[in-house]
Amino acid sequence: MKTKRTILQPSAIRLGVPWLLALVLAAGVTGCVVPLPLLSPMENHGARTNLTQNTAQEFKAGQSSMADVVLALGEPDVVSADGYKLAYHSEKAPLPVVVVVYPLGGAIYTKELFCTFEFDPQGCLQKATQSQKTRLGDFNGEDDMPIPKWPYGDTNYVPAYMIERGHGQTNYVPAWLAGERLWRVFPETKCYTGVNGFQGLQARIKEMKVGMTLAWGGWLILTESNVFLFSKAQFANAEPMVKIPLASVTGVWVDEQDGERMLVVRSEPGQVNSFILPETKPGLFHRVDKDRQPARVACDLIQSKIKPASSEP
Amino acid sequence: MTAQIMNAKFVFVWAAAALVLAGCATPPPAQWPPDLLSFIADGKTTKAEVITALGQPSGRFDAEKIFTYRLGHYFKREPYRVTPRQTSYYGWGTWDFTQFSVVLVFDDAGVLQRHSLLKVNQ
């Protein structure tokens, strides 16, 4: 009579089985892809959806004009600072699922299209290019952008980038900045146009209606002769949203309330603008003295350029 | 008696169905094209009239010959309104709650020559 042979002793099996199970479970779970239905089948991170794979070919170099392109495709998504390059970005989710990849988390499979159009100074199309990319993850189209990449990922904020880098290091300087000596740039500033300090802000909030914009976020730029606010909502080829010549400033002060500070600038003729500057640590792009409040720094700078008597309200 | 019970059941079923379907009623969409664009006419409308009616454009291109505006609404019943440009962290334009792009092309004298109204987002 033959006896059944076992390769492993019972004690070894007792020890080995849990490990084996754990190994199988780990191998099974690692890299596990679980498709889940999307709540919205057109999840596209707010990108436009009116581009096709043939969009760039619909326009002819030397024949199509900038007006032809914009009339057909709508407002572009990015514009170069000189205004001669327009870019469009479309993103669609061809598969209406969220893919869960353990242990990375959820991601969405999307198909992206990029179209860029280059024009001559007369507005005649010189070159149209298109690229496509499928991607699993969050919105980030920087890698495939045919137009130059800018630091800080701020594709749209070319003027602010130029300001930081200095005029000599770029080929193009916006007309509104040409010849200006730069003093300070405060990114992530909130600008309240027509608002006089915190009291004015409260009054503005009370009169807000649907569709009104309370504040504009962007860069507060102090130069030798002007205070600028270049908004993030603006295209790179735009003029600054706010321009206050220092010669017109009749008063500047820091309004404080509940530990928050607001820079208030009053100027002729009867205008007032308030700014909340981010109170973050200084960095390459935020050249503020370490122990001083940005609003106070900006206030002192403006005061030093205007009449000594015009400080407090 | 049985007929009365059957009638009552019939009425109950119809009432229940009506209640359920009432929740499915789709509100009428906002008027399209929206009233705020009714003044636009090629060969007549000027830049100044456009800015007076719609405010500052979200984009100006080709030496300010091209103005662009954005139109959108949060809910389908809401009337369309001009929306400001939004950007992603990377500086790209985004179109959340903004479905349409209005493009106005002016001549050198600032008179509207061509225009388009495009749906750019779902």
Largest sheet of chain B: 5 strands, antiparallel
* Largest beta-sheet details of chain A: 7 strands, antiparallel
Radius of gyration of chain B: 24 Å
Tell me the fraction of residues in β-strands of chain B, as a range: 25-35%
Helical segment count of chain B = 2
Give the amount of beta strand of chain A, in percent.
Answer: 25-35%
The CATH class of the largest domain in chain A is identified as Mainly Beta
Distance separating the two termini of chain B: 56 Å
Would you count the extended β strands of chain A for me? 13
CATH superfamily of the largest domain in chain A: Pleckstrin-homology domain (PH domain)/Phosphotyrosine-binding domain (PTB)
Secondary-structure-based class of chain A equals alpha+beta
Concise account of the structure shown:
The complex is a heterodimer of chains A (313) and B (122). Chain A has helices spanning 10-29, 66-73, 158-165, 197-206, 294-305, and strands spanning 33-37, 78-79, 85-92, 97-101, 105-119, 125-136, 182-193, 216-223, 226-231, 242-245, 249-257, 260-267, 271-276.
Report on this model:
The complex is a heterodimer of chains A (313) and B (122). Chain A has 313 residues and is an alpha+beta fold. Chain A folds into 2 domains: 33-149, no CATH class; 158-305, Roll (PH-domain like). Chain A contains 5 helices and 13 strands. In chain A, the strands form 2 sheets. Chain A has a 7-stranded antiparallel sheet with strand order 10-9-8-7-13-12-11. In chain A, strands 1, 2, 3, 4, 5 and 6 form a 6-stranded antiparallel sheet that branches. In chain A, a hairpin with a 2-residue loop joins strand 8 (216-223) and strand 9. Chain A starts with 9 loop residues before the first helix and ends in an 8-residue tail after the last helix. With 122 residues, chain B is an alpha+beta fold. Chain B has helices at 2-22, 47-54, and strands at 59-61, 66-72, 81-83, 86-87, 93-94, 100-106, 112-119. In chain B, strands 1, 2, 3, 6 and 7 form a 5-stranded antiparallel sheet that branches. In chain B, strands 4-5 form a two-stranded antiparallel sheet. Chain B is elongated and about 80 Å long. The A-B interface holds A 42, 44-50, 65-67, 70-79, 83, 86, 89, 119, 123, 139-142, 150, 153-157, 210-211, 213, 232-235, 237-238 and B 58-63, 65-66, 68-70, 78, 81-96, 101, 103, 105, 114-116, 118-122.
